[in-house]
Write a structure and sequence with these properties.
The structure is a single chain. The strands form twelve sheets. The protein has a nine-stranded mixed beta sheet with strand order 35-36-37-39-38-40-41-42-43, with helices on both faces. Strands 2-31-30-29 form a four-stranded antiparallel beta sheet, with no helix packed on it. It folds into two domains: 18-373, Methylamine Dehydrogenase, Chain H, CATH 2.130.10; 436-716, Alpha/Beta hydrolase fold, catalytic domain (Rossmann fold), CATH 3.40.50. Strand 25 (282-286) and strand 26 (295-299) form a beta hairpin. It has 718 residues and is of the alpha+beta class. Helix 3 crosses helix 4 (581-592). The two termini are 40 Å apart. It has eight helices and 43 strands.
């Protein structure tokens, strides 16, 4: 039986929709440009060693591109007429050769193009064309990182007026090295009429004379260490000041930084846009729907770090986003999802087919493609990807292809496809993960503060979606000297909810948030809906959810959003711990949120056939997953997921399992079976030692010795 993968719906009539076209599926170059190479009036595509003649995309030789450590040394295609001969050349800035060069169009002969070295200043991720000095001519602004000797550097290059009879002359202009790092943007940040330069740790204020005077460094914010190129400088909310948008180029998520100004000061507020995918290395702004406003466009890069980054093997996607200033949320639309195409280092937004709307060109190591905007043109939109049911959820080493044919899981890419089917199965049982339109500003409010020996305990609430706030405790250790690890701590089924992990009552062995805060972890402890201080009616307030489980997952994702806004938290060192109800919700949440790097689950699951001998009624209240009863007749054979898949979906992230042998809720026999099968996937991902299970001689509890082992394990892995 087939089921639709829960992705945003395709554009309906009157909305933006796209159709994917293959230019060359064998290409592995990461940059492209749209240039009328042969002056026939149609835009061709230049990509690395070839150019592709429109409209049939016939391939023509362009040049031999150097290969360095397995990659083509061609990280940017910035079109400009460098030598003034009337033919469009391009400029490239590169990481591996540490060189900046331009590639000369041959002119009417259409023969091989010629490479000319500009400089070899150091490692550059890529570059963009901007008018740095405001003289009306484009300059080259590379994303500079470090010199050949390892020192940070920053500069921009100005093309001097040139002619076909003279060599092109380039003038290097130094910038303060504070701006060096992975990510760069350009725009007027302080509304003085001059465009500034933005980096990951602050911004350079443009002087009156951008060519000669020194740029002033302002360390006003801290984005992420792997920001996209570019960081977009754009007034997102239309309030008259400039905000920032970036993606995690080698990590999870898209974000924006809101500038809030008044007469006294400027505040910067971080917001998450979408954290369901990774590797957003290149961003664009383009008016896709011809309404005069710009949409955010982003796509996933293919294997930027050979599979070593979070989510890197996940299927490729490209999306557009539109900001709703009234709701202060983003609507996401699909460009392409689950196919062969994404964005490399230098995609382009341009009307490639000349029909009056903006198309997209996506180069990358998985091929060169173009995404046809169907706003004006006619044609069938691409169908959504499909997910498939699996008769035996314990059989993890199989996956179905697009036609439903069963194949062996032999590679991480194969497993990533199966993992998407697992997430779809979870959503068939729980209902779909909320859309980006539900991601309202967090608006964290502090209601009370108290002090303990080792940490402050804040009673807070935060907005998880329109009209709903989550009560929580935030535990912040005293005297933190730098950003440190954080834990999302989820409680069991108990009337006091968050109070138990926070050490304010209940069972002493479940005070893990209190104990972790004593050990230096920032801990966020939310109430599950309807527990503790969280008054919640699943029939009324939660009527737009198919399950309480999905509501809790969404709240937990928003809790991770909150942790990432805190100055005390290292955004890449966030884990999750929970017992019983919190134990399986830690697994569910981590399956949907790869920002959670380590998971500790105590007494949280067993295989469905071993849960009270397959009697699943305990899972079916409105608090949990009522569809298990209503649609799947409480049958383990019919539920569209099982914990074999849930645990395996976390690979290669570290998971610590506490499964007592006398747990009457979650039979240890089923836990052992789950662990045995999940280890096959951990082995496939080269992380055999990352899945650890302990089986203490106890009942449904988290014994002292096992907690201490879990804390040591956390210390070693987070």
């Amino acid at each position: 039986m087939a089921g639709l993968l829960f992705l945003p719906k395709l554009a309906q009539s009157g909305e933006v929709g796209f159709r994917l076209h293959t230019i060359d599926a064998t290409s592995t170059y990461s940059a492209a440009a749209a240039i009328d190479v042969n002056r026939d009036g149609e835009l061709d595509v230049v990509c690395g060693g070839w150019w592709y003649e429109a409209p049939a995309w016939k391939r023509h030789f362009l040049r031999d591109v150097r290969v360095i450590r397995g990659r083509y040394d061609d990280y940017a295609h910035l079109p400009m007429d460098v030598n003034g001969d009337g033919w469009t050349d391009y400029v490239s800035a590169n990481w591996r050769s540490q060189s900046l060069y331009w590639v000369q169009h041959p002119g009417p002969s259409l023969g091989p193009w010629t490479k000319h070295l500009i400089a070899r200043p150091g490692g550059m991720e890529t570059a963009r064309l901007v008018d740095v000095d405001g003289d009306g001519r484009l300059d080259v602004l590379p994303n500079c990182v470090r010199t050949p000797t390892g020192q940070p550097f920053a500069a921009w290059w100005e093309l001097q007026q040139s002619s076909p009879n003279q060599p092109a002359r380039w003038l290097r202009h130094e910038l303060p090295a504070d701006i060096a790092g992975h990510g760069i943007g350009f725009g007027d940040l302080n509304n003085d009429g001059r465009k500034d330069i933005v980096g990951t740790q602050g911004w350079l204020e443009a002087p009156l004379d951008r060519r000669r005077d020194r740029w002033q460094w302002h360390p006003d914010f801290e984005l992420d260490r792997d920001c996209s190129i570019p960081i977009l400088v754009h007034d997102v909310d239309g309030d008259g000041d400039t905000d920032l948008i970036w993606g995690r180029a080698h990590n999870i998520g898209l974000y924006w930084l809101e500038q809030r100004t008044n007469e006294r000061a400027t505040r910067w507020v971080r917001h998450a846009i979408d954290t369901s995918w990774s590797q957003a290395h290149s961003l664009l702004l383009a008016d896709l729907d011809n309404d005069g406003s710009l949409e955010l466009v982003a796509g996933k890069r293919y294997l930027g770090h050979e599979g070593n980054d979070p989510g890197e093997y996940d299927p490729l996607v490209a999306y557009w986003y539109q900001f709703d200033a009234q709701r202060r949320t983003w609507q996401r639309g699909v460009i392409s999802a689950g196919g062969p195409a994404g964005f490399g280092l230098d995609p382009k937004a341009i009307d490639l087919d000349g029909d009056g709307d903006i198309d997209l060109v996506g180069p990358g190591r998985s091929g060169i493609y173009w995404f046809e905007n169907l706003l004006v043109g006619k044609g069938q939109r691409d169908p959504p990807p499909r997910a498939w049911d699996y008769a035996d959820h314990a059989q993890l080493r199989i996956v179905r292809d697009a036609a439903g044919k069963q194949q062996a899981v032999a590679t991480p890419h194969d497993w990533a496809r199966r993992r998407q089917h697992i997430l779809a199965g979870l959503q068939r049982a729980m209902g779909p993960l909320p859309a980006t339109t539900q991601r309202v500003p967090l608006d964290m409010q502090v209601h009370d503060t108290s002090q303990t020996t080792y940490y402050r305990r804040l009673s807070i609430s935060f907005a998880s979606e329109p009209g709903d706030r989550v009560p929580a405790f935030l535990l912040i250790p005293h005297d933190l000297q730098q950003r440190g690890p954080a834990m999302l701590c989820l409680h069991q089924t108990t009337g006091i909810g968050k109070g138990e992990p926070a050490g304010l009552g209940g069972r002493r062995t479940l005070h893990y948030a209190h104990e972790l805060a004593n050990r230096g972890y920032v801990c966020l402890v939310p109430d599950y809906p309807s527990f503790g201080d969280y008054v919640y009616d699943f029939q009324r307030q939660g009527s737009h959810y198919a399950s309480g489980s999905m509501k809790a997952i969404w709240n937990n994702l928003r809790a991770v959003d909150l942790l990432q806004t805190l100055s005390e938290v290292d955004r890449d060192r966030i884990g999750c711990i929970g017992h019983s109800l919190g134990g399986h919700n830690a697994l569910f949440t981590a399956a949907f949120d790869q920002r959670i790097r380590v998971i500790v689950t105590s007494c949280g699951f067993t295989a469905f056939h071993h849960y009270y001998d397959g009697k699943l009624a305990g899972w079916t209240s409105p608090r949990y997953m009522p569809r298990i009863a209503h649609e799947y007749a409480n049958s383990p054979d019919r539920v569209p997921f099982d914990f074999y898949e849930v645990v395996a979906a976390l690979a290669p992230r570290p998971v610590f399992i506490n499964a007592p042998v006398r747990d009457s809720n979650f039979a240890v026999t089923g836990v052992r079976k789950v662990v045995t099968q999940a280890k096959l996937i951990y082995q496939l991902r080269g992380a055999s030692d990352a899945l650890r299970a302990e089986y203490p001689e106890s009942a449904h509890d988290f014994p002292d010795t096992i907690r201490e082992a879990a804390y040591k394990w956390l210390r070693d892995r987070l």
